[in-house]
Amino acid sequence: MMLSKQVIATLSDLIENRLAIMTIHDQDDLREKIHLQRALTELRGDEALTAGILSDFTDIPRRGRRRKVGGMAEA
User: Fold this and answer.
1) Which of 10, 17, 55, 9 is nearest to 36 (CA)?
2) What φ, ψ does residue 69 adopt, rounded to 5°?
3) Residues 4-34: tens digit of each pLDDT
4) DSSP code of 60?
5) 22 vs 3, higher pLDDT
6) In terms of residue numbers, what domain contains 46?
7) With a threshold of 0.90, does the pTM exceed it?
């Protein structure tokens, strides 16, 4: 399925607005932020940025001991 440039621009704006107002309170919020950042990079076609920006957030576990979110949210 191909998306037009207008649709991509609108979706990018919506994701950027959501990321701008988002506050991280727990690991689920952090996971949502990561998903939104990945979606934004895919929409823009910035695959090269994916490795740099999101490398710290790869594979956040859903089980086991919870990681401290404070240090990861600032990046």
Assistant:
1) 17
2) -85, -25
3) 889 889 999 999 999 999 999 999 999 999 9
4) -
5) 22
6) 5-58+66-73
7) no
